[in-house]
Design a protein that fits this description.
TIM Barrel; 8-stranded parallel β-sheet
Length: 306
């Protein structure tokens, strides 16, 4: 495993993290504690130290599975990132909740679910600019940071071209940007990444496998079950994406290289990107994801050692 400095923080994160949206039940299945443990144990075995979750992956359900796991392991082995700003109601149903007092309550609920005294990276989660621009919100969060409940603040931008929230990061004390970035969606390269580099913001690339389309497992015409989040995607857009994936596989992925590993390494080669946070259904996928680190051989401005 390789490690990079997360922007202007003191956190050295593994270049491969573990995304845990799947633990909330919106990937077409529910997870037992034993299954979550197996995924996280495999990550630890392979040198992964970053877990990304959110309060609305289930009603703190993902956080609870992670918290139960962490409570039986060495907390210092892990960098825990979670998010705020939504109330979960049901699968694929949530409402915005960015008021300062409500976020303070969300923070306490996340700490309780995670069974932690502090969160390493607490991220504004895909909210509108109006909510982001609330001085009251960031003043409250800064006080929570001073109280020791949060180590660092971050922003998970909903649009991968949200330059306003990216450019305002230093002003509000946000040290990292989480953004959709993958071989099929390169929009952040135009404006967001240059701003991140200028401000020395860490970058967490989410959906680095384009919702699994870049895994190489699916051909044009693939149909996803009704309880799979991809079932909600536009059918024609999905077909076009899978046709592009086929072309990328033929023309860009070296012979003998696993496409998913290649796609993760592709993200990590950009000088702005600190880490990728793919989801994973089982320990085998964690292992496949981790292999991408072996394909990253060029020096990177954030390279670190731990």
């Amino acid at each position: 495993m390789k490690y990079r400095r997360l922007g202007g923080t003191e956190l050295n994160v593994s270049v491969i993290g573990i995304g845990t949206w799947q633990f909330g039940g919106e990937w077409g299945r529910e997870y037992t504690q034993a299954e979550a443990d197996a995924i996280l144990d495999k990550g630890h075995e392979l040198g992964i130290n970053l877990i990304d979750t959110a309060e609305c992956y289930g009603d703190h359900l993902s956080e609870k599975l992670i918290g139960d796991y962490i409570s039986r392991r060495n907390r210092e082995d892990w960098i825990i990132a979670t998010k705020f700003g939504h109330h979960f109601h049901d699968l694929f149903s949530r409402t915005d909740a960015f008021e300062a007092s409500g976020v303070a309550a969300q923070l306490d609920a996340s700490l309780k679910a995670l069974k932690l005294d502090y969160i390493d990276l607490y991220q504004f989660h895909s909210g509108p600019d109006q909510a982001f621009d609330s001085d009251e919100l960031w003043t409250m969060l800064d006080k929570q940071r001073e109280a020791g409940k949060i180590r660092f603040l971050g922003t998970s931008i909903g649009s991968n071209d949200n330059l306003h929230q990216t450019e305002s990061s230093t002003k509000v004390g946000s040290r990292a940007i989480q953004v959709v970035y993958n071989r099929l969606d390169r929009k952040p390269e135009e404006r967001v990444f240059p701003s991140c580099q200028e401000q020395d913001l860490g970058v967490l690339a989410r959906v680095p496998l384009a919702s699994g389309y870049l895994s190489g497992k699916y051909k044009p015409g693939a149909v996803f079950a009704g309880n799979d989040v991809r079932h909600r995607h536009d059918a024609e857009a999905t077909r076009l994406k899978l046709e592009e994936v086929e072309r990328i596989g033929r023309e860009e992925v070296p012979a003998g290289v696993d496409m998913a590993s290649w796609a993760l390494a592709w993200c990590l080669k950009h000088p702005a990107v600190t880490t990728v946070i793919p989801g994973c259904k089982d320990p085998a996928q964690v292992e496949s994801n981790a292999k991408a680190a072996e394909l990253v051989t060029e020096p990177h401005p954030q390279d670190a050692s731990i």
